[in-house]
Amino acid sequence: MDEVPNNVNANDATVVDGDEVDRSPLAASAGQVLCGRYRLRALIGSGGMAQVWSATDTVLNREVAIKMLHSHLANDENLVARFKAEAIAAARLSHQNIVGVFDTCTDAGRVAIVMELLEARTLREHLNEHHTIEVVTTVRIALRVLAALEAAHRAGLVHRDIKPSNILLCDDGRVKIADFGIAKIDGNTDLTQAGGLMGTVAYLSPEQVADEPVDGRADLYALGIVIYECLTGSTPFQADTKPAIAIKRLHAKPVDPRRIRAGIPPELARTIMCALERDPDDRFSSAADFRAALLNGSVPPTTVVSTPMDDTGELPAPTTSFARSERRWLLPAFVLFLIATALVTVALLLTDSAKEFSQKPGTTASVPVTPESARLKITEAVPFDPQGDGRENNRTAALAIDSDTSTAWKTEGYEPPGFSGRKSGVGLALELSARSTVDRVSVTASTNGWSGQLFVVDHDALADFDPSSADPVGQLENVSGPVAVDLDGSKAVRTGDVVLIWITDLGSATDDGRHRVEIASVELAGTPGA
Question: Is the Cβ–Cβ distance between 114 and 103 less than 8 Å?
Fold first, then answer.
């Protein structure tokens, strides 16, 4: 499916590329009620497979988007089966960076998916208007997309068509992935027409072009191309025809983006080039790894610090548009950059003066000493299960902080290590006696190769905290023994009165065949009273 410009109103969010109009006798029209419930209001987009309408859910009295398969395709049983199966799969994903799927229904030959309707514009529209995007904004968009992909891949769902027109920049500052319309359950057989390429040519991974097995790393490749385009103004592979563009990535290596835009940080350029490796085994193995690479040095520290996030970790809500929001982020970044530059200059001058003074006979100079990190007092351990019933063996949580490694708090037992796609993780919140800057987290836990993330938040924000949309201060990867994570190099906020150990993979199964993590001891070091 080659990409063509979309004709969707900039204030409507659910987007399908193309400009085809279904004119068959079964074609929908404004005012019709679909499935006895959804009153169609206006056509907001149309593509090769489906139309998208804005509609009113007359039962719940809310506005929705209806994606309706073209009537001439509704007799294709395989296509309808795929259409419904993918809708059901996407509906399992409850994530604030993914457009929600509410329902699927069939009415008089019309097959439809009911989705979240948002006020947004696509990244494609933004790029068409601005050509390129600033580094900090590009990285922040990519982090939100990766958070969504991490959730989708954990549930076994591969999007297969990540591109700017499927990335929505909401008017309230959120970023969402739309249109899992050609997604597939990882490992399932494709229900697609023979010889058809699933995805948009400019963003296809080499394995898609070569008709080889596809997993989540294809999505990471496509996102690498999106980031490349945001920063340079063009996709990395150019040719006269779309088949030539597709084939070129099988043989040619992308040009380093810094040769096109010199201001791209070197570490970010290396991250992009890693995502664009021809062999999936040479790319990032997961969305989490890609996120970690972006967070660890892809953006200059002054830029990251000067771009505040709200309590949910989302992009700041713009006043009227994403473009104005972007300017609002970048102005403070520039001001703080100037301040930081001035402070560094003063520090260098003072350092030179101190050296000169200390070298004069008969003089002494006192050198300020930074106190070493102190052990932080943990007052309480509370299980954190926002996507479940709110409880996770709460009665034994104190065993994680009792200084006795022979006792431990355990998560509940789960059948698969990835929580069956029902939730993205569970955690243990460690409440501190005072708001502190956390420098180090030491954990003694089970040795079954579990993984997770570390966050530092304020207690008042914990109830609404969504780890999938926030930037972790540290990573716990394949833990197989006592581990200590130094946070002082983290770009994320590490000051607060709660440290959250967020478990995203439960590791290998225990003797009873279920997957769980045990945390026997936690020690925190940092500066209290921050």
Answer: yes
Residue 309: the pLDDT is: 35
Is residue 484 within a helix (H) or strand (E), and if so which, with residue range? strand 483-486
> What is the pLDDT, as a whole number, of residue 227?
98
Dihedral of CA atoms 149, 153, 159, 163 in degrees, nearest 10, equals 30
Would you tell me how many other CB atoms lie within 10 Å of the CB of residue 131?
A: 12
- CB of 145 within 8 A of CB of 139? no
Angular region, 84: left φ>0, alpha ψ -120 to 50, beta rest:
alpha
Residues 453-478 have a mean pLDDT of: 90
Q: Where are the beta strands (DSSP E) in 190-349?
A: none
Domains and CATH numbers, the chain: 33-116 (3.30.200.20), 121-184+199-305 (1.10.510.10), 374-528 (2.60.120.260)
**Which residues have C-beta within 8 Å of that of residue 200, sequence separation ≥ 6?**
1, 2, 3, 17, 161, 163
Name the DSSP class of 120.
E
Q: Per residue in 305-321, is it b (16+ CB within 10 Å) or e — as a string? A: bbbebeeebbbbebeee
Strand order of the β-sheet with 38-46 is: 33-34, 38-46, 50-57, 62-69, 110-116, 101-107
Which residue's structure tokens are 């296809």? Answer: 204
Work out the average pLDDT over 223-231: 97
Roughly how many angstroms between the first and final C-alpha of the chain, as a whole number? 54
- Catalytically active residues are 161
Query: What contacts 450, CB < 8 A, 6 or more positions away?
Result: 417, 476, 478, 479, 503, 505, 506, 507, 517
Give the tokens for residue 443: 């954990």
Residue 282 CB-density burial (10 A; 0-12 exposed, 13-18 middle, 19+ buried): exposed
CA 158 to CA 527: how far, in whole Å? 43
Largest distance between two CA atoms of the chain: 99
Which element (helix H / strand E) includes 246? Answer: helix 242-248
**Based on the number of CB atoms within 10 Å of its own CB, is 442 exposed (0-12), middle (13-18) or buried (19 or more)?**
middle
pLDDT by residue (tens digit) across 64-123?
Answer: 999 888 888 888 888 888 788 778 877 888 888 999 899 988 888 888 999 999 988 999
- pLDDT tens readout for residues 257-291: 999 999 899 999 999 999 999 999 999 999 999 99
Q: Can you give the pLDDT at residue 530?
A: 63
CB atoms within 10 A of CB 251: 8
Residues in the chain: 530
The shares of helix, strand and coil residues in the chain, as percent rounded to the nearest 5, are 30, 25, 45
Rounded Cα distance between 500 and 392, Å, is 14
